[in-house]
Amino acid sequence: MRRSDLGEFEELVLLAVAAMAPKAYSVLIAEELEKETGYPVSTGAVHAALQRLEQKGYLSSYLGEATQERGGRRKRLFTITTFGGKTLNEVRMLRNNLWDRIEPDTLAKIGLHFS
Amino acid sequence: MKYNNPLPPKWLDNIAARICAPHLREELIGDLNERFALRSERFGRQKALRFYLREVTSLLRPSIMKRKPSQYASTPFFNVEMIRNYFKIGTRVLRKNKGYSSIHLTGLAIGLWACMMVATVVIDSLSYDRQWTRGNDIYRIVSVDKKADGLEERMSSSNAALAPELQKLYGEVESWSEFSTTERHFKLNEKDTDGMKTEVLRMDTAAWKMLNTQVLAGSPKRFTPGTNNIIVSKSFAEKFYPGQDLVGKIIYDMPAYSAKPNTYLVTGLIKDLPYNSHLRADVIWVRQNKPETFSPEGFATFSQNYIMLRRGTDVKNFTSKVNKWHQNLSKSYASKTVVFQPMKDIYLHSDFALNQHVRGDAQTIYIFSGVAALLLFIACVNFVNLSTARAFARLKEAGVRRILSGSRGQLVLQFLTETLILFGASVVVATFFYYFTLQSVENFLGHRLVQTFITNPEMAFYASLMIILTAIFTGIYPAWLISGFKPANTLRGTITATFGQNSLRKSLVVVQFSISIVVLLATIVVWKQLNLMKNKDLGYDKRHLLSIDFISWDGKASAFKNALLENPAVVSASITHWLPGQGGGFMTREIPDPAGGKGRVKVWYIAGDLDLPKTMGLKLADGRLFSSQLSSDAINADSLQKADFMKFEEAAMLQPSILTRSAAKKLGIKHLNERIKEANTVPIGIIKDFHNESLYEPVKPTLIVAHRSPEYGGMLIRVVPGTEKQVTNTLHQLWKQFFPSKLLEIGNIEDTLNKQYEAENRMHQLFLFFSGLTMFLSALGIFGLVVQAAEQRAKEVGIRKVLGASVAGIIALLSKDFLRLVTIAILLASPLAWFSLSKWLEHYPYRTNIDWWIFAVTGLGALTITLLTISFQAVRAALADPVKALRNE
């Protein structure tokens, strides 16, 4: 199963790229994740995840323009590939299916319910 | 805000860049910087910095650190093809710059050769007495006497009964024996008139347990009583009695004291004793251990004694234990201690042991290993200096190589290969010289070298290892320097302008010259000291004086003397109990101070027949010399002593004597011909002071007394200048008539005395040699640098010339820097040399002055040599056609 090689953090990063398209790059993603999770997210970790995702074919990248804050360095911009989109979709479907199969009683018991 | 961007500290950025793989650097560092900017806007700089640090550490992950493999096929670092190429290019470069290569080669070869030689001597000296299996447990008993004036008198001999007493008292002592070396002239037949000079080791039977020897024939360990037992070494047996079995035979010696030759029974044949031992000998003379009873009072015989302690004994503890016992033995022992000198220290640390023939001098060894190390250092400095100077000529090459994708490692390897080739060639040259000079060095030292790089492969292996390490160490700096420049800069030629003003090179030159100036100063001072000792007026005429070594005259002394005096070439002759070079006198006495002062005075006695003062040529200051007319002037010491000791004492009480001035002063003599009670003598004459001993010792207050017809003694013969050979012949002839089977050893007093200063003589010669070498090497180095400077400044010189500079001006321009460096070196070296040489001279009671002119001469000499070396090249540069220099490019 190919889905198993998509780790949790990777999935988040992949989602973030999709959400921020077409301007997604590591700093933005890290900041976003930091904001969402409330924990500091290091650039290195994000970068490593992006690299892996690109290697797996879920992302494609190109070098963007240089900015002042970066000391005149260019940034690498990421976009999600169709294959990446498909995979995300598959993951989501899988989750949804499982969610759907939970009985309402059980949901209530564990303190979860859809409002 | 936009234009005033907060940036993280540079060094952190650098670390981050180091961690990152190069292909990720741009985006990653950019990201980090951007986030830093964001954060410092949000939380302030302080917090942002902390975040940044965390960011940098979080870069430490494989996916970021992993370098992208090069897209070109990489050549492995140690590739056979590449190495072959290094060698090819290396040899080509060296062959192209013949001048440079030969300067390098000469310098390095000399440095390496000197180092190898000195290393050989040092290693050989250190190898002495390391081969005995129990060597670590054997100690020589050294007697130490603390004098009132704080000086220590050390003697290698000890009371013969002390060692057995120690064995009795202390369980730690396993065994003991006397060990001493003497000389015997052995002959096969009793009637032979000539014997073979042989070194003999005297030891006790117990010594078989202490020294390991390999018995080839006979049973030497079984003692045959009633005769002298000797054990001969293989090489001695082969020389003495070729092809025959000596074991069980009786051989004879040439006696000095007895009328008839002594007999020796050969009880065994052993493998040669190790040459590198202070107990070096061809024949062992064994005696039975016969412990005398030890008593602290009364007469005692002194000999060189050794003890062997049980394995693992703490010597320090043992020594203090023994001394506690020893000092309480008697009142007179309070100042006397014993020291146990380890066997392996004896060769190098025995300057007090005058009877030990085989000994080295640790200090000389230290001095010369130091000088050799400095020499090698100078050679290596030359190498570094010249290579870095040379570097700029090769910057373009290095640049092109790097552009053509040569890595820095490869460049370093390329330059290192050149260094290694040069070192290799120098090693070959040095080894060649080493091989051929070994013999002359052995001659110079006066003994064989057992451990050499040729006979000992292990040593050779370590030496080559050392040399390779030195080569790498020397080569790495220039190689690193040359390969480190950016190719873009080197190819544009922007570096050459700033290059060459290297402070490292300047200080190296200063150090180099300081060393050679110190060595040069040392050479001059040692020479002056040697000269002083050789030429100082001794108070008597040491020239044209022959001597015969001590023998027993068998009552034929006067007859022999008279027969000798018939030869017109003999001016005068004297039978004597003391010969120059044999210490202060035949006996010493410590007598209560006659002048009434506290303490005791030590005086030395010299005895001979009536003609002794005349023969020696002593200069009379007051009173008279001995006269043959007055029968009371001499006593029949030997016959009286034999007949009745008391009578001898009585006669000696009133014995007339001649005093030296210092003795007269010490004894407070006011009137001649009045008996001095304390010294048991009646002074009849005062002579000028003379040096009985070497000039290592101050003048000794001496009394000369006369004995009639002495039984034992040597002979001093004053001859007409130039007739030494003739008189020697006469002596040989007369000897055959008088004492056909006795040992005759004729000496020349002047030679004997000069031999005392052999150490200084050797030191002087070595220093002379080394100072020449260090100067030469330093000059070589500076020559290389000047060539470089002239080349480098060719354009400058050209422009100056075009603008009208004079030749002299240009020479001054080129020489100025170097002369300044040498001047600094002189200023640095002079006080250093002055200090250490004064220290060295303190050992001598008669020392030469370190005059100011020595420094002036040395300084001027160094400057002249520098100037000559420089001007050779500077003049050429100054005379060169400026058009040539300016038109190039």
From TrEMBL, chain A:
Pfam families: PadR. Residues 15-89 form the Transcription regulator PadR N-terminal domain. It comes from the Bacteria. SUPFAM superfamilies: Winged helix' DNA-binding domain. Coiled coil: none annotated. This is PadR family transcriptional regulator. It comes from Dyadobacter luticola.
UniProtKB/TrEMBL annotation, chain B:
The chain crosses the membrane at residues 102-123, 365-386, 411-436, 459-482, 508-527, 766-786, 821-841, 853-875. Pfam families: FtsX, MacB_PCD. Residues 103-321 form the MacB-like periplasmic core domain. One of its GO terms (cellular component) is plasma membrane. Keywords: Cell membrane, Membrane, Transmembrane, Transmembrane helix. Residues 371-485, 769-877 form the ABC3 transporter permease C-terminal domain. GO terms for molecular function: transmembrane transporter activity. InterPro entries: ABC3_permease_C (IPR003838), MacB_PCD (IPR025857), Macrolide_Exporter_MacB (IPR050250), Permease_put_prefix (IPR047699). Its main location: membrane. The keyword Secreted does not apply. It is found in: Cell membrane. The keyword Cell division does not apply. It is a multi-pass membrane protein. It comes from the Bacteria. This is FtsX-like permease family protein.
